[in-house]
Design brief:
Layout: E1 10-14, H1 24-34, E2 38-40, H2 59-62, H3 66-70, E3 75-79, H4 86-95, E4 98-102, E5 117-119, H5 123-130, H6 140-159, H7 166-176, E6 182-185, H8 189-197, E7 206-208, H9 219-228, E8 233-238, H10 239-244, H11 246-254, E9 268-274, H12 292-300, H13 307-318, E10 321-325, H14 328-336, E11 344-350, H15 353-372
Parallel strand pairs: 1-2, 1-3, 3-4, 4-5, 6-7, 6-8, 8-9, 9-11, 10-11
This protein binds thiamine diphosphate and magnesium ion (MG).
């Protein structure tokens, strides 16, 4: 596995992996030896601060900038499932670097046919390859570290000055959840917001999702499955995905805690970001072009009532906790203290969809300005 030898401008990409933590040491050794930055989505279990490794938190935003096209890669080494990050896929397609896929399970997931070398090897081979590399001198890894730090400061500049919206919720989950907890993220915008805004920390926060075909069904049930393993679990879910799996909420509610003679001892916090329907579609080019009423009826499909109304009704009927909140401080207070097992609780947060979309655009523009010195960002 001498793929990295002689290639200084490489990146290691880590897609979703349930067992990604078993790769931590090998990936760290490889990144240190090659000088390549690590672009790990949270669901890889590898977005974690490791000494000597450039861990990039904001690659989704960085790879939309002109800076990224002035820093084209000559090599990509991927582990894990297909990455969630679309700008990463487009950056690879534009620059066509040598592309190795470390794929011990032989999944061959490569929808855009970009992979040039398929390696059916495990972490030992990656660690072995690291031992054959000479330390690089190009400054490539440092430039990524600098750009990521500038992006983080630009993002904080936007988020810290504004009311809580979806990016701020994702950032706060990474700041507040105890390391012994797990985060489960729904498809649609939650998994993307977490990829863009949850930052590496010293201790691992297990982050899971069912990427599959991006279904928004069964989200609460899957998160309850993680919680049933004994790990207190928080699930970040949109308002439609929440509605799609209220049966999962009942299932989690019915699990009888060990303290009451049962065996399931389940601790599940459901954080619902209520933006009034499927707002992922409002990031598509058709939004603002086609008739707004038709767009909403066919794509946004806004529910008639808020998630807060729904959750408070269910909470009253079923007897679980419901908190309707609007700030980082309230979210932190509910998530940070790992008290006694909670059973099921639901936290609802109202999100103004227009303000949220606008904030996403301003974050992209602020990142572009911070790393490229230009104001024109790709949306
Ligand atoms: C089972 C299933 N049905 C429909 C879809 C199509 N779909 C993708 S995203 C989405 C909207 C999800 O809305 P919400 O959960 O509120 O998240 P948001 O888009 O607001 O982030 C829909 C309907 C899907 N992915 N899976
Ligand atoms: Mg929604």
């Amino acid at each position: 596995m001498d793929f990295a030898r002689g290639r200084e401008r490489g990146v290691v990409v880590a897609g979703p992996m349930w067992d990604g933590d078993r790769w931590t040491d090998a990936v760290a050794a490889f990144c240190r030896a090659s000088g390549w930055p690590l672009l790990a989505e949270p669901g890889s279990q590898l977005r974690r601060m490791v000494p000597g490794v450039v861990v990039v938190d904001h690659h989704d935003l960085l790879l939309r900038t002109q800076w990224a096209d002035h820093e084209p890669p000559d090599a990509v080494l991927r582990i894990g499932g297909a990455p969630t990050c679309k700008p990463l896929r487009l950056w690879i397609e534009r620059h066509r670097p040598a592309f190795a896929f470390v794929d011990p399970a032989r999944t061959w997931t490569d929808a855009s046919f970009s992979i040039s070398l398929h390696l059916s090897v495990g972490p030992e081979a990656m660690a072995g390859a690291a031992r054959t590399l000479l330390s690089p001198e190009s400054g490539w890894g440092q430039r990524w570290a600098d750009a990521d730090a500038r992006a983080a400061a630009a993002i904080d500049g936007v988020l810290d000055a504004e009311p809580l919206l979806e990016a701020g919720v994702a950032r706060q989950l990474g700041r507040s959840l105890p390391a012994s907890h797990a985060l489960y993220v729904s498809n649609s915008m939650p998994v993307r917001d977490v990829d863009s805004h949850l930052r590496a920390r010293a201790e691992l926060l297990a982050v899971h999702a069912s990427r599959g075909a991006s279904g928004i069904d069964g989200v609460i049930s899957a998160a309850a499955g993680v919680a049933a393993s004994g790990t207190p679990t928080t699930v970040l879910v949109g308002d439609l995905a929440f509605r799609h799996d209220l049966g999962g909420l009942v299932g989690a509610f019915d699990a009888v805690p060990a303290t009451h003679g049962g065996s399931d001892d389940l601790d599940l916090t459901v954080v619902v970001v209520d933006n009034g329907g499927g707002t992922i579609f409002s990031f598509l080019p058709a939004h603002g072009v086609v008739d707004p009423e038709a767009f909403d009826r066919l794509l946004t499909t806004p529910p008639g009532r808020s998630s807060s109304q729904l959750a408070s009704g269910l909470a009253a009927a079923m007897g679980f906790e419901h908190h309707h909140i609007g700030s980082c401080d309230e979210l932190h207070a509910l998530l940070a203290a790992p008290g006694p097992r909670q059973g099921v609780r639901v936290i609802t947060i109202d999100i103004d969809a227009d303000a949220n979309r606008d904030q996403h655009r301003r974050i992209a523009a602020a990142t572009e300005a911070a790393v490229s010195g230009s104001e024109t960002a790709e949306p």
